[in-house]
Amino acid sequence: MDSSVERAVIVTGAGKGLGAAFARALASEGAAVLVNNRLRKGQPDSAGAVADAIRAQGGRAITNYQDIAAPGAAQALVKAALDAFGRIDAIVFNAGIIGPAAKLPDMDMAALGEVLNTNFLAQVALAQAALPHLLQSPAGRMVFVSSSAGLHGVRGRIPYAASKGALNAMALTLADELKRTPIRVNVLCPYASTPMTSQDGVAGDPRLDPAYAAGMAAYLASEACSVNGQIFLAGGRRYRRARMVEGRGASAPDDSTAWVAEHLDQIASMDGAREFPGAESAFADLYASIDITSTGG
User: Fold this and answer.
1) Domain limits for position 282
2) Is position 160 annotated as part of the catalytic site?
3) pTM tops 0.70, yes or no
4) Does residue 14 sit in the same domain as residue 118?
5) Do 220 and 250 have their domain in common?
6) pLDDT of 211-225, one tens digit each?
7) Do the domain assignments include residue 64?
8) Which residue is catalytic, options 160, 191, 212, 219?
9) Number of domains in the chain
């Protein structure tokens, strides 16, 4: 254990691409970083290379080769960070897989399960294992790395989009559950040219260098982060916030489908759309606008 560590961060999937950029950015801000990336037989030690680069710049880093989807990986990751640094102040949940491209008729259910296990269930397991230790930090932070696919869907990638949508919903729920603690939970949907998004023979867009999304990740994992339960997008040093909103809607005088069809434009209008801090408040708002005076029977 290094008793001089003032802030320790776990970054999963940090051997290359976005995760490596996040790990380097955090180290440059003074954090001690656990660089996690699974080590495949015959492949270079990418996590080791990132950790070496951080140490060469005077930073602190250790490597970890757990496959986050493996049984017991969450507990092993937490133990490794505690053994090395004596504390866990933040986690950047970056590791994930995209899975094979396929539309619904050709989708393999085993592949669906693998994507959901890695991109959602493994993230929940790590959050659960680390939570008691994050609560001991004066500024615990969870940064769930998601995708705009989880906001808008993406053609031919049902498993990936579903897994990221589930991750978003879980993170927002967790943020609400922990809002009275020092922990802040947020979501980052980055755009970047990475090995996971690259196409054979096609050069990556230099404007989408992973480093250009790392500033937001480092901020959300930092003690300075003051926001909670938010979704941010980042790419090319361009940042913006995303949120689910609901329109004002309209009240029908009866149960007629003809009325719905006639007033669909008013129902679907997003003029005056609002966001809500949770499902309870969204329901309460709709319930307050109900003007049915008798339920009949």
Assistant:
1) 245-289
2) yes
3) yes
4) yes
5) no
6) 999 999 999 999 999
7) yes
8) 160
9) 2
